Amino acid sequence: MGAAATNLNNLDFEFRHDLLDKVQFEVPLVFVNREAHGIALAWVREQGIEIRPRRDRQYPDFVRAFDPIRDALYVALDKWDAFICEPDTRLFLPDLFDTLIDIKSDLTRLAVPEALLRSKAATLPTMFRYFFNLKVLFIIVDAQPDLQAADNDTKVQRRWELESTQRGAFVWNHHRGFEFGDSEYVGDKALYRLMEKATIGIEDWLADNYIRSFEIRSVFAVRR
Fold it and tell me: What is the pLDDT of residue 98?
């Protein structure tokens, strides 16, 4: 979390997603032929992808900054407590005493491992205190240990895509509460029950704050 001054006694308090490591993309068509090269470069520009030269090899890296609208921020189980507690910790530091704080949040998609539903589901509603624009909570089934970005000097992390488990989703309806997206759940009944239980505390927050759109969806994370 970071605070940026708007005037002497008024600060914007926001999650600095611009400080996250960039994501690496594979763009093999760039190296095929002239025609494919032109098509690939046009796509690269449309996606806001940066071409970063490498000193240790002939071919460059293709990287893109985190996009809070279309990308999901993954929070590992062992990072969850720090993630939800850091804003409170920062707000109570002496340099913010007697300061007006305007909380801002661009993050719309959050991803957590399935294991979090088993041990910390009761803490899920707290994510809305500072990330109140969330639209989707992805539950990663069988999350791999290397899904979390590794610490390195390149400031680039591997790219993962989320693929549907084809098991439906819990979709929020402001008038009727959470509804399961499919008429019948197909798959792991234990996961279904964990997701259903997780909706209880979240439902109260969504109703109290007149949130119109939110869903909880189980997905696989696939390395690209």
Answer: 83
Distance of CA 7 to the CA centre of its chain: 30
Size (the chain), residues: 224
Backbone angles phi, psi at 111, to 5 degrees: -125, 135
Q: What is the pLDDT of residue 84?
A: 94
Q: Give the residue carrying structure tokens 């005037």.
A: 7
- List the one residue out of 183, 154, 151 whose CA is nearest residue 167: 183
Low-confidence ranges of the chain (pLDDT < 50): none
> Structure tokens of 117?
């539903």
**Which among 1, 214, 222, 220 has a CA at the least distance from the CA of 108?**
214
**Antiparallel, parallel or unpaired: β 61-64 and 109-113:** unpaired
* pLDDT recorded at residue 52: 78
Residue 198 to residues 34, 103, 205, 206, Cα–Cα distance (Å)? 52, 26, 12, 13
Q: Give, in order, the Cα–Cα distances in Å from 186 to each of 140, 166, 189, 190.
A: 17, 8, 8, 11
**55 in helix, strand or coil?**
coil
At 63, which amino acid appears? Answer: V
Pairing verdict, β 100-104 and 10-14:
parallel
Q: Write the CB contacts of 57 (distance below 8 Å, at least 6 apart in sequence).
A: none
* pLDDT per position as a tens digit, 81-108: 999 999 999 888 988 888 888 888 999 9
Strand, coil or helix: 142: coil
Q: How far is CA 192 from the centre of its chain?
A: 21
